[in-house]
Design brief:
This is HYR-like domain-containing protein. By secondary structure, this protein is mainly β. The protein is built from 1 helix and 13 strands; from the N terminus they run βββββαββββββββ. The model has no long low-confidence stretch (mean pLDDT about 90).
Amino acid sequence: TTNGNCAGSYSVTRTWTATDACGNSSTASQTINVQDVTAPVITTQASNIIAECDGNGNELALYTWLTNNGGATATDECSPVTWSNNFSEIANDCSAAVTVVFTATDECGNTASSSATFTINDTQNPVAPEAPANVTVACATDIPANVSLTATDNCSNEITVQGVDTTTQGNCPNSFSVTRTWTFTDACGNSSSVSQTITVSDTIAP
């Protein structure tokens, strides 16, 4: 037997020797070449995964998924397999996704692949601050100015703020209420709101 360059590649030289009664002999040989050209068999395909955004690129979940080859398994008739993948990077933002090809390679270089997608999904609303306390004022001119509020988010640094005043009229010109609402929306469209009620009540006599 002569070993080749991998576990499934070698040659066998089979020799027959014929010898007569006087000790004369002759030989015949056969060479059997064994070459592994069969790819590994994927026994379990890699699985897609959706991870809730943690603001850090979901490094632990991604590392675990990659290390486990996306859940893929493979066997080979001649030798163990080694795994590799083509992952490069994934964006740390709303609904980022990357499709990774996991490749099983036997000792003779034959390959089989399985692909799956890792998706970062943000379903959590921004964390809104407390709204200013409700107040009651005597005249419309006493209504406090709108203030700037800022929310935080587990995934997105880009949060838009929209302030809306909704007026509900009372029984006279200087009797009404204003509901001031701040709505915070992250890059994935998740939103949260807080409100302040400003009551205008004219109780001052002429």
